[in-house]
Amino acid sequence: MAYFKLEFGFGRSKSEGKISDSANQADEQDVLEIPGWDFVKGEVERAKQEGRFKVASNYLTAARSFTKFIGSDNWLFSDMTAEKLDSYQRWLLGRNICLNTCSAYMRALRAMHHRALPVLNAAPFSKVFTGRTKTEKRCISQSEILQLKALPLQPGGSLSFARDIFLFSFYAMGMPFVDIAYLKKSQLRNGCIYYARHKTGQQIQVALLPAMLEIIMRYEQRDSEFVFPILSDKVKDSVSSPSVSAQLHRQYTARLRQYNYNLHQLSKMLGLAKPLSSYVVRHSWASIAYLHHLDISLISKALGHTKSSTTFIYIKSLFDSDLFEANQTLMEDLGL
Predict the structure, then answer these.
(1) Which contiguous run of DSSP H or E holds residue 195?
(2) Longest CA span, the chain
(3) N or C: which end of the chain has fewer CB within 10 A?
(4) Which of 231, 31, 19 minimizes the C-alpha distance to 117?
(5) Among 275, 276, 278, 286, which Cα is nearest to 312's?
């Protein structure tokens, strides 16, 4: 009777439990001893196959940074102790790496650590910062926007193109560069742009203003499905080459670097105290719109308010005719 009571009361014998626990501990130890870079490469490849290229890039960047700190490629997940990670964070800060960047590295390492050891908690990361801090406000003034628009540049040049894309983003209520790069002609209809944010998947609708149409016509490509000559639709999927999505992402990251470089050059030409970047335009639209007395509830539909963890957050819906009219009024006030 005692035997059956044990079976039905606990579902397994003590000896069976010890064997199972020992097996789990052995599995955990095996993962702990997996060379860190072997696991990282596997996670990077998995993220790429899922089309999460930004995640893959974050994993690689964080792993390279941690490797530099360790001083060897032969590190293990068992090296990620609370004390070691605390030292790593101090090492980063001592090299003038900002706290938000440190946090990004830690979050990437924590994500991989959790996938490697799902049965363990995040204790090794308990002493390091994994949140987000407020960053310096990044925006330019209305007069600087007008100076940029009036800046004499060679038509058809790279600086002229960067200026036009920056202005197009501003006219489109801070449309991000990634969404402009991937924008297709099929997404322009009924006097509007319809697109889904690459970052969040949120559906957004933007009214096409005359100034936006002028820029679109300036760079029209009849043989391409894309609105702007940023990405090529000539890439093909094959066994011997990366997937189409991977090739396009590679093109995008290269064009983004070139775009920001050209914006930096424009900043120097204008003598701006704060250099232009792909992020500045979004912040600038929100700030200038507020100064022009647009209702804060309308602005909040395009951009979120500042919080301790982020500068701006995006909301769920931007489908609002009042917002289109408000943006039209803003552009008219600016003489654009």
Answers:
(1) strand 192-196
(2) 95
(3) N
(4) 31
(5) 286
Q: Phi, psi (5° rounding) for residue 195?
A: -150, 160
Listed as own residue / partner, the contacts of 131-136 with beta carbons closer than 8 Å and 24 or more positions apart are 131/103, 131/308, 131/309, 132/100, 132/103, 132/308, 132/309, 132/310, 133/99, 133/100, 133/103, 133/308, 133/309, 134/306, 134/308, 134/311, 135/100, 135/311
* Per-residue model confidence (pLDDT) at position 318: 32
- Edge-to-edge strand list for the sheet holding 203-207: 188-189, 192-196, 203-207
Q: Which residues of the chain have pLDDT under 50?
A: 1-24, 26, 28, 239-240, 303-320
The tokens for 66 are 């941690």
- Over residues 20-47, the pLDDT tens digits come to 444 445 454 555 567 889 999 999 999 9
Give the SS3 label for residue 189.
Answer: strand
Q: What backbone phi and psi angles, to 5 degrees, belong to 322?
A: -60, -35
Residues of the chain by 3-state class (helix, strand, coil), percent to 5: 60, 5, 35
Rounded distance, CA 307 to CA 131, Å? Answer: 12
Q: Which stretch of DSSP H or E encloses residue 193?
A: strand 192-196
Looking at CATH, the fold of the domain delimited by 142-333 is given as hpI Integrase; Chain A (1.10.443)
Which phi and psi (to 5°) does residue 216 adopt?
A: -60, -45
The H or E element containing residue 60 is helix 53-70
Q: What is the pLDDT of residue 303?
A: 47
pLDDT in tens, 64-77: 999 999 999 999 87
pLDDT at residue 313, as a whole number: 36
What does the pLDDT read at residue 280?
87
- pLDDT for residue 160: 97
Closest by CA to 115, choosing from 40, 26, 30, is: 40
Q: Given this model, what pLDDT does residue 71 score?
A: 92
Could you tell me the residue ranges of all domains in the chain?
Answer: 33-125, 142-333
